[in-house]
Amino acid sequence: MRSRNARARLWTGIGAAATPLAAVAALAVAVAAPAQAATAVKTLAEAQGRYFGTAMTSGDVTNSAESSVAAAQFDMVTPGNEMKWDATEPSRGSFSFSRGDQILNWGQSHGMRVRGHNLVWHSQLPSWVNSLPTNQVQAAMESHINGVAGHYRGKVYAWDVINEPFNEDGSLRQDAFYKAMGSGYLADALRTAHAADPDARLYINDYNIEGVNAKSNALYSLAQQMLAQGVPLQGIGLESHFIVGQVPSSLLQNMQRFAALGLDVAVTELDDRIPLPASSANLQQQGTDYGNVVKACLAVPRCVGISQWGVDDGHSWIPGTFPGYGAAMFYDANYQPKPAYNATVAALSGPASPPPTTAPPTTAPPTTAPPTTAPPTTAPPTTAPPTTTPPGGAGCTATYQVTNSWPGGFQVSVAVTNGGSSAINGWTVRFTLASGQTITSLWSGVNTGTSGSVTVRNAAYNGTVAAGGATSFGFTGTGSAAPATGVSCTSS
Ligand code: G3I
């Protein structure tokens, strides 16, 4: 693994002197009481059919103040380090899941969904992998994926199967996997992960791919090729480690072009670092940045959720990796909400997500410059009106909408809304697909049947829907883009 300083150079080239402020912030944490925000970001996100998550390490979940703030605010958790290769298979064939299980159990005990992070990454890779003869790397990689994704089968909603595979110029990193297998390791990893956990949404996750640039263009081309070859790639993780004031103006367009391929997109590791000491102007700008990220996600139906990389400024990785920078979270080190938190709440409280469109939505972040590379044109999605069922059971309704289509295929999003006055703890949506339609991949639910009459029950993590809240599932299919008939929802 690279040293922290080497990593900082790779990310931005910033090499400022270290500051003692991080230590001051850490001390403040010990004496602070958690802030009680009026409305949790998770509740607002759920009402928009999204999640709002955080990253937690073993240290974070055992910190009672931090843990209670996280449990109150977030509905998704990504283990910060505990499911990585060095944690789960420190020596060949010897698996250790205690730390990963700790985060999984913490998340599940707080009703959160859990994101698996990650399976194949050049960093936090034990030295035994890098020391293998190249003709043994593929077997080791597949064994690792089988061991880890197999252990968490059915328990995580998604996996960052491949983490940070690209260099900044769009070439693939010359890591142990590439050296052994060439670019073929990417599809092999995804196929192996899919076999190990068929229900997990499988992602490629990377940083500096949030805007349209050489790196995201290379990923876009790779995704196109993979989908054409039937490789089980289902999502793109935009890490979103931003510098204040530098959220790319092409973020929305970039999300849209990946979504138009039929992929989920997710903001997986959001933070927005500020030169220390943080000025009031920069804290306000950070609020603008956070608001724009949230608005962009809400404007893209396939943007499934947002996750901050940590809870508060006292427990962020930023000061240790980027000396002179910090204050990157939406809570300060005393768990007090910052302008970024308020902007997040305001953006999540905005109008319900607009129907899918290729035209820039009104909630698009302001563009300061046109993207240097125009996103490829794609066929406009079908805009058939959504079908909303009458309430069933304790008030659940299902809104079925074809969100994209292409010759011979289509994509659907179904919103499940609890219009009742009490929470529901499980839901079932039934519908009848048009003749010739077949579901090829369904996410955030468990289906019975792939053609004709189909029943979809909630996944383990999204059965509970608060009064007035919503969740969603989706699928892709082959056949015409005709809407389903007989859509109904029952709840328990
Ligand atoms: O486990 C050792 C411990 O034994 C040792 O005493 C200690 C001394 O520094 O280091 C510990 O390892 C640290 C590890 O986190 C676990 O705490 C490493 O030094 C430290 O570099 C490592 O940092 C992690 C970093 O990934 C590594 O690249 C951060 O916590 C983690 O937040 C960060 O997360 C990544 C995502 O996985 C991928 N995207 C970028 C993101 C931020 O870098």
From TrEMBL:
EC number: 3.2.1.8
Region (Disordered): 350-396
Signal sequence, renumbered to the chain: 1-37
Composition bias type Pro residues, residue spans: 352-389
Record's keyword annotation contains Glycoprotein: no
Keyword terms: Carbohydrate metabolism, Glycosidase, Hydrolase, Polysaccharide degradation, Signal, Xylan degradation
Residue span(s) of domain GH10: 38-347
Alphabetized SUPFAM superfamilies for the sequence: (Trans)glycosidases (SSF51445), Carbohydrate-binding domain (SSF49384)
Reactions catalysed according to its record: Endohydrolysis of (1->4)-beta-D-xylosidic linkages in xylans
PANTHER family to which the protein is assigned, alphabetical: BETA-XYLANASE, GLYCOSYL HYDROLASE
Family: Belongs to the glycosyl hydrolase 10 (cellulase F) family.
Protein known as: Beta-xylanase
